[in-house]
From TrEMBL:
The active site is at K11, D175. It comes from Johnsonella ignava ATCC 51276. The gene is ispE. Catalyzes the phosphorylation of the position 2 hydroxy group of 4-diphosphocytidyl-2C-methyl-D-erythritol. Its EC number is 2.7.1.148. It comes from the Bacteria. Residues 243-309 form the GHMP kinase C-terminal domain. This is 4-diphosphocytidyl-2-C-methyl-D-erythritol kinase. It catalyses: 4-CDP-2-C-methyl-D-erythritol + ATP = 4-CDP-2-C-methyl-D-erythritol 2-phosphate + ADP + H(+). Residues 93-183 form the GHMP kinase N-terminal domain. Belongs to the GHMP kinase family. IspE subfamily.
């Protein structure tokens, strides 16, 4: 097997509560994360070292990252190609970092490689077809990294268990452990404490992403300032009630707790957040809330058919001349899946 292709699914936060910054710079959080069936498409392929990296898609900017550039003692070069001009094509890309971890793990053990593989003669190409919007709070980069971790473990038959893979995931970012798991999950700690919950079945989502996005770091800095000054951000969700509602399949109760403590901070800078929420409620959404640090906003609808119809009307009427992206999405019980071997 010379390549593997995976779907890397987006996530939304149904209810998000955050505490003050820890000494290590992270924030403790409590949230229900839900995978949705919007996905990036990731292909990880082996290249002979003499191979020339493919040009990829329009706007591709393929960069050969040498060992000296990455600052790590490594085996093999890693190439990133993508149809999205905006994502890094070098060692700043979290998918690159995931591939580096797994390639070096394979080299250390050697028993983790396919029969007749010579790691000294192999480079890696990661092809990323972007569908998940960036700066949306939907975990696109984290999902890509999780898919690369899972894909390379299978591609190179690397003998590491899920616990070690989760440790690698956490070293890459707070959302990556969840993206390895996916589904309906209560996340706490900095995101690494994962409690699986029953699937949130039956509902549908309409997700609207404004053209503008916000830096996650910038939003959290604003949150820290408001906390330090004793200012209230927004109503906090009751995570215990939210968890109970998910377990009981009570969509009305889930909707009442779909509150994001970061939303008011983002809405001060992006007033379209409020406009989008009103449009979703006017379409009959049971709840409307920003996901993560934004700027995407989702509406919860009673079923998928209603969500699809509402998204269609919003595209044709309210947001016809507005620079937003409108997506109807269903929930899914996984963070990634393999769809092709080659």
């Amino acid at each position: 097997m010379n390549e593997i292709s995976l779907k890397a699914y987006a996530k939304i936060n149904i209810g998000l509560d955050i505490s003050a910054r820890r000494d290590d710079g992270y924030h403790e959080l409590s949230t229900i994360m839900q995978s949705v069936d919007l996905a990036d498409y990731i292909t990880v392929r082996k290249l002979k070292k003499s191979s020339v990296c493919t040009e990829g898609y329009v706007g591709g900017n393929n960069v050969r990252v040498s060992d000296s550039q990455s600052g790590i003692e490594t085996s093999g070069n890693i190439y990133i190609v993508s149809d999205d001009e905006g994502i890094p094509k070098d060692c700043k890309n979290i998918a690159y970092k995931a591939a580096r971890l797994m390639l070096d793990e394979a080299k250390r053990s050697q028993k983790g490689t396919c029969f007749n593989d010579d790691l000294s003669a192999i480079d890696i190409e990661i092809e990323i077809k972007k569908n998940i919007p960036v700066q949306a709070g939907m975990g696109g980069g984290s999902a890509d990294a999780a898919a690369v971790l899972a894909g390379m473990r299978e591609l190179f038959k690397i003998q590491i268990d899920d616990i070690k893979l989760q440790k690698y995931a956490l070293s890459l970012g707070a959302d990556v452990p969840y993206c390895l798991t996916g589904g309906t999950v209560l996340c706490s700690g900095i995101g690494e404490v994962i409690t699986k919950l029953p699937d949130l079945v039956g509902c549908g989502f309409v997700i609207i992403k404004p053209f503008k996005g916000m830096s996650t770091g910038e939003i959290f800095n604003e949150f820290d300032k408001s906390e330090a000054n004793g200012l209230k951000t927004v109503l906090r969700p009751d995570i215990y009630k939210l968890k109970a509602a998910v377990i009981q399949h009570d969509l009305d109760a889930v909707s009442k707790q779909a509150v994001n403590v970061l939303e008011s901070i983002v809405a001060k800078r992006l007033p379209e957040i409020k406009t989008i929420k009103k449009a979703l409620y006017d379409e009959g959404a049971m709840a409307a809330s920003m996901t993560g640090s934004g700027s995407a906003v989702y509406g919860i609808f009673k079923d998928m058919d209603t969500a699809v119809s509402s998204a269609g009307r919003l595209k044709k009427t309210f947001f016809l001349n507005t620079d937003v992206r409108i997506i109807s999405a269903g929930n899914i019980n996984k963070g990634w899946e393999v769809y092709r071997h080659g």
